[in-house]
């Protein structure tokens, strides 16, 4: 429902509080006048942009968590958790403050409404038309802070390469006997042989490196291959059994068909796998799709999107954006990353990336929980 519809269901006391927030001058005893005055005031671009522009970073994070969620309703527990998740310092420490206060502020602005039916009376809704306006206003404000860039002399574009390497991995398991250690990990010789066949070369991670949280095998394998391995494992293409890594029947059939994986399904898997340590991942990708149709500098992008990201243990917001989001999006073929002597690192979405991001949504609760002994 849109704002006008929700105002009609609100009682006069709630309408009076919203009208007071916007300093509406009208007959406070007339529900119709309150509604018309609120709609007139909120409909003004300058008023709406001022309201969004005056938000604290904590409230922007909370708002951001709602904008790209396609559900119509949220429970109080869900909203409380999202407010708590949005309250952190640059280092990741909690900021004090009552989640209830943030929810009340959003209600007083007419940005959140309690349900009106018996089934939704304990749930909350965001007006659909306001969601669209929030996205437009924030995109404008974010865009004004970005630094445009010229096309760099060199850039990396890995469209379809990850799909090729998934197929190459399955071919290795068809042609070779790959044994596993007692911990269920490939021996270094097998791992190196597989990595040598890939279009994108990676080095095995050092044993002293801190690695967990971004996949079932992230601790033992380099970033990109860890993702390929987990995708194949959770897609039932490979099996770990009896100390050996083999193709499943589904994996053998996939090879016989000779077709590559669907890039949309690979992207959806990445969201499900990484959204645990990076809760705003889906919104970050949506913003990148809107903000980077042309080349922009990474430094300015970091200034805009970095504050939305909560550090994950020893991973800073900066390293999460650079390594876990942008690098992985490049591997997925969603964006290009270039280097320029004067502009530094620059970013641009690919047409494939824009198409996939715009047309794909994964429910917030749909994520892959990594077993503790594998984290």
Quickly describe the structure.
The chain is of the alpha+beta class. Helix content is 50%, strand content 9%.
- N- to C-terminal separation? 41 Å
Radius of gyration: 24 Å
Shape: elongated
Structural class: alpha+beta
Tell me about the largest β-sheet. 4 strands, antiparallel
Order of helices and strands: HHHHHEHHEEHEHEHHEEHHHEHHEEH
Total beta strand runs: 10
Helix content: 40-55%
Low-confidence stretches: none
* Residues in β-strands, percent: 5-15%
pLDDT averaged residue by residue:
94
Strand order, largest beta sheet: 4-9-10-8
Oligomer: single chain
List the total number of helices. Answer: 17
Characterise the protein shown here:
With 375 residues, the protein is an alpha+beta fold. 50% of the residues lie in helices and 9% in strands. It has helices spanning 3-9, 12-21, 31-42, 45-53, 57-67, 76-86, 99-108, 128-145, 161-175, 188-197, 223-234, 249-257, 263-274, 281-291, 298-305, 317-331, 351-359; strands spanning 74-75, 113-114, 123-125, 154-156, 178-179, 238-241, 244-247, 296-297, 335-340, 344-349. The strands form three sheets. A four-stranded antiparallel beta sheet has the order 4-9-10-8. Strand 6 and strand 7 (244-247) form a beta hairpin. Helix 2 runs parallel beside helix 3 (31-42).
Task: Please supply descriptive tags for the structure shown above.
three-stranded antiparallel beta sheet; elongated; 17 helices; 10 strands; four-stranded antiparallel beta sheet
Task: Give the helix/strand layout.
Blueprint: H1 3-9, H2 12-21, H3 31-42, H4 45-53, H5 57-67, E1 74-75, H6 76-86, H7 99-108, E2 113-114, E3 123-125, H8 128-145, E4 154-156, H9 161-175, E5 178-179, H10 188-197, H11 223-234, E6 238-241, E7 244-247, H12 249-257, H13 263-274, H14 281-291, E8 296-297, H15 298-305, H16 317-331, E9 335-340, E10 344-349, H17 351-359
Antiparallel strand pairs: 1-3, 2-3, 4-9, 5-7, 6-7, 8-10, 9-10
Helix pairs in contact: 1-3, 2-3, 4-8, 5-6, 6-7, 14-17
């Amino acid at each position: 429902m849109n704002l006008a519809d929700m105002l009609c269901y609100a009682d006069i006391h709630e309408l009076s509080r919203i009208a007071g927030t916007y300093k509406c001058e009208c007959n406070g005893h007339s529900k119709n006048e309150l509604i018309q005055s609120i709609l007139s005031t909120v409909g003004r671009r300058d008023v709406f942009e001022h309201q969004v522009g005056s938000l604290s970073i904590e409230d922007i994070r909370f708002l951001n968590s709602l904008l790209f969620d396609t559900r119509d309703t949220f429970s109080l527990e869900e909203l409380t958790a999202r407010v708590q998740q949005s309250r952190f310092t640059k280092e990741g420490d909690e900021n004090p403050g009552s989640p209830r206060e943030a929810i009340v502020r959003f209600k007083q602005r007419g940005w959140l409404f309690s349900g009106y039916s018996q089934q939704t009376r304990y749930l909350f809704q965001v007006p659909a038309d306001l969601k669209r306006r929030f996205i437009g206003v924030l995109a404008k404000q974010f865009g004004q802070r970005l630094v445009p860039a010229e096309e760099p002399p060199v850039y990396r574009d890995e469209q379809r390469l990850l799909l090729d390497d998934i197929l190459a991995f399955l071919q290795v398991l068809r042609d070779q006997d790959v044994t596993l250690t007692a911990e269920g990990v490939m021996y270094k010789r097998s791992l190196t042989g597989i990595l040598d066949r890939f279009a994108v070369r990676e080095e095995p991670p050092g044993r002293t490196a801190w690695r967990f949280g971004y996949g079932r095998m992230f601790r033992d394998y380099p970033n990109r291959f860890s993702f390929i391995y987990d995708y194949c494992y959770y897609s039932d293409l490979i099996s770990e059994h009896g100390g050996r890594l083999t193709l499943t029947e589904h994996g053998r059939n996939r090879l016989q068909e000779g077709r590559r994986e669907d890039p949309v399904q690979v992207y959806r898997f990445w969201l499900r796998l990484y959204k645990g340590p990076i809760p705003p991942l889906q919104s970050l990708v949506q913003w990148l799709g809107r903000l980077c149709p042309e080349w922009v500098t990474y430094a300015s992008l970091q200034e805009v999107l970095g504050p939305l990201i909560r550090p994950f243990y020893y991973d800073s917001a900066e390293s999460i954006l650079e390594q876990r989001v942008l690098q992985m999006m490049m591997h997925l073929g969603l964006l290009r990353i270039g280097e320029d002597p004067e502009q530094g690192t620059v970013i641009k979405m690919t047409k494939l990336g824009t198409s996939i991001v715009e047309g794909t949504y994964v429910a917030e609760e749909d994520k892959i929980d990594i077993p503790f002994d594998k984290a």
